[in-house]
Amino acid sequence: MGISIGEISRGMTLIMDGELYEVTEFEHVKLGRGGAFVRAKMKDLRTGRVISKTLKDSDNLETAYLETRILQYLYQSGGKYTFMDKETFEQYELDAEVVEPFKGYLVEGLDFTGLFYQDRMVKVVPPNFVDLRVTEAPPGIKGDTATGGEKPATLQTGLVVKVPLFVTTGEVIRVDTRTGAYVERVS
After folding, report:
1. GO molecular function, one example (predicted)?
2. What pTM was estimated for this model as a whole?
């Protein structure tokens, strides 16, 4: 079933010309004369390529309904990252390019959300928050307070985030995977 351009939103998955696209940005435009249209940036879920497209109501747009499954990250080997469906125990391998945006949050045993279209995995989404151990954090400078200032800290996955000055090596912190920002100290 087709949709109108007024229904387009960020994060929506569309089928165009037989391919799956995720809308990453969009802008509704209504000119004084003539019809409205949408300028959209969309990511091809098969290739990862981002395209810019002008969409009109006359375009044949269709919403793709994606099935979600809980996947557990198992391991990385030879540039491939292996995830397992927690219900069927089926394993899926992803290339390094696909996991690059969230590579710093890959911890063995962590649950991710897999999005499937017609039994084919098209995307993996990390959890909103991940707890990671600080492996390297320079000491705070004398006179700094717990409420001001930040310093870079390296986490167990190699990810570097800005943390408050009171965070030390060996502590576990919670990181927001959507922004890459420090949230709180866990232990």
Report:
1. translation elongation factor activity
2. 0.78
